[in-house]
Amino acid sequence: MKKDVVVLVAGTFDIIHESHINMLRNAKSIGDKLIVMLSTDGFNTQKGKKAYQDYETRKFVLEAIRYVDVVVPENSWDDKEMYVDMFDVNIFAMGDDWRGKFDDLKTIFPDLKVMYFPRGKTSSQKVKKDLAKIEKEVDDSNV
Length: 143
What we know:
By secondary structure, the protein is of the alpha/beta class. The protein has helices at about 20-30, 40-45, 55-65, 80-85, 105-110, 125-140; strands at about 5-10, 35-40, 70-75, 90-95, 115. Helix content is about 40%, strand content about 20%. Strand 1 (about 5-10), helix 1 and strand 2 (about 35-40) form a beta-alpha-beta unit.
């Protein structure tokens, strides 16, 4: 019997946009089961990041995406190792802005394939900056 290929991706997934969907679709296309490890609000704080949407909202949206099978919380950098082991993950994937940062997982899990997907044209940071600019323009026009 063929064993399912399990893919694990990790991220904050704030303000879901087409680049997120492309990454999730691509990750699902290379496996049978896609697990998304979603950074919690507390972990984002540790990383110096602030998500626009809280963890529960981001989790709710991810769970509604057809490519995603399971969403699990990421509370620390060490959770990657824990979930790779727990779910017998075959492929760990991230955006290519993280290229090389998680290659060490292969030394712990020699059969694990680590992949980095190209970033799309949209990023959550860009969306936030554009919205802030629009908000400022609206505020300035109401003065």
